[in-house]
Amino acid sequence: MKNTTLGIILILTVILTGYLISSSDTINSIGTNTITGNVINNNDLIQKVVLSEKDLNYYPQEIRVKANQPVSLSLDDKVKGCLRSFTIRDLGISKYLKAVTDTIEFTPTKKGTFVFSCSMGMGYGKLIVE
Fold first, then answer.
1. Alpha helix positions (H), the chain
2. Which of 21, 41, 66, 88 could form a disulfide with 93 if both were Cys (CB 3.0 to 4.6 A apart)?
3. Residues linked to residue 93 through DSSP beta bridges, in sequence order
4. Three-state SS string across the chain, please?
5. Measured over all CA atoms, what is the biggest interatomic distance in the chain, rounded to whole angstroms?
6. The pLDDT value given to residue 43
């Protein structure tokens, strides 16, 4: 019985280690031009932000956008579990983004730093409106 339990623990450790290594490699390959709030449509001035997941948290943990310009925020396919339930409480934003095509669209009207998180508060970051 002890050998079986030890074997199961060893197998689970190997699987978890492999997952963490593979997710770390794919996150490092993500370009930075879509995760920093850059303007992607000059006619409408829409700021597109795509968040990913790294170390069981949002990546990047700090994003910057301009005030009074529309923001389109989405989560890529690396984001799993409760992190897909995205909230910015101080801006009244709360939405479950089931698919990578789901977006949250809003226009921040006041400057400042706003905390974003999953609905459970386990994953978090900062939205800086300049």
1. 2-28
2. 88
3. 88
4. CHHHHHHHHHHHHHHHHHHHHHHHHHHHCCCCCCCCCCEEECCCCEEEEEEEEECCEEECCEEEECCCCCEEEEECCCCCHHHHEEEEHHHCEEEECCCCCCCEEECCCCCEEEEEEECCCCCEEEEEEC
5. 67
6. 54
| 8 A C-beta contact, residue 65 and residue 49 | yes
Q: Looking at residue 19, what is its pLDDT?
A: 47
Tokens read off for 42: 């000059």
CB distance 50 to 78 below 8 Å:
no
For the chain, percent of residues with pLDDT exceeding 90: 65
Cα–Cα dist 39/48, whole Å = 6
Span 62-69, average pLDDT: 96
